[in-house]
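Lab notebook page, bench 4
Experiment: in silico fold of construct C2
Operator: M.H.
Input chain length: 388 residues
Purpose: comparison with the prior construct
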Amino acid sequence: MPVPETIAQPGSGVETDTGPGRPQPVTEVLRPHAEHAFADELAALAAADDRPRPTRWRLSPWAVATYLLGGTLPDGTVVTPKYVGPRRIVEVAVTTLATDRALLLLGVPGTAKTWVSEHLAAAVSGDSTLLVQGTAGTPEEAVRYGWNYARLLAEGPSRDALVPSPVMRAMAQGMTARVEELTRIPADVQDTLITILSEKTLPVPELGQEVQAVPGFNLIATANDRDRGVNELSSALRRRFNTVVLPLPATAEAEVDIVARRVEQLGRSLELPALPEGVDEIRRVVTVFRELRDGVTTDGRTKVKSPSGTLSTAEAISVVTGGLALAAHFGDGVLRPADVAAGILGAVVRDPAADRLVWQEYLETVVRERDGWKDFYRACREVSHDAR
């Protein structure tokens, strides 16, 4: 099955066509793919990995799990954790990919489904870019294949006129394909995966041919069932997946650790200054989000109303990153309550009518009475008043 030629990877320094002008060297990108950002760790794991590897896997299942969960290798190389959560969840996900079952990562928004999917593909296949992004407008061609219509009109149906989808390329090369937000895709398009996952083949009736998957092929899909616009999976398609549910962080300290790690990584890529004394503000943001999410204060004494949004860990990361940018560019570089207050308001108040009442009640009954939170209360109240 012919596939497109490999192009220069961003960040490699290789000349890349930039349009009408001459090719220019690309030296860095805002967000490198996992296989480039953590190339040193993957190489160290491959060198130390002496365990059996499934066909066409770059690492053994043990090494893939170590890459995601972190650890120290015999040569002293420190592998940073990519996912903070129960080890068994990662082990089940990796084991699923070593079988003929596809993997479905399910969870509420912000539970690192996409992050885990990308790093799994990078560790298993060395390439996380065979991606289908699910939306309400994703066509069937994005999952199966399309056509180069200029060649199709000039030559008729042929292999050269066929444009393979990322899934078809993964089948032909024995690699891992990814489908993000599977439940965003219309149901009839979702079901094009049934034959691929059950028969491991993709018919091309226009040519009277088919593409059969070679050993090493598998598929990772992500989905959530909380947001609006979700299309439920058919029972036939759901049976083709082994479903692994990614939970929200079990404890506040675990969530604070996740937020701090990701903010540090994002801050480096955005060239923001290091976070010198921001842990207290991160802990406040995480506490607010967890209490509103759970409907009860941390000490269990006061019930609170929950807003319409999910207030996930990903949103906490966004709030703190935005606050860090404010502190860096318009403050003294130290993260303070005034820097995160606007971000919290934007994350909590999604429905201007109902959510604003929930937020005001939480401010006055919980935040106002909490020891050591006076500056936080004043900053949030000021922002809330200005937003009216």
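Observations: Residues 252-386 form one domain. Confidence is low (pLDDT under 50) at residues 1-26.
Next step: discuss at group meeting.
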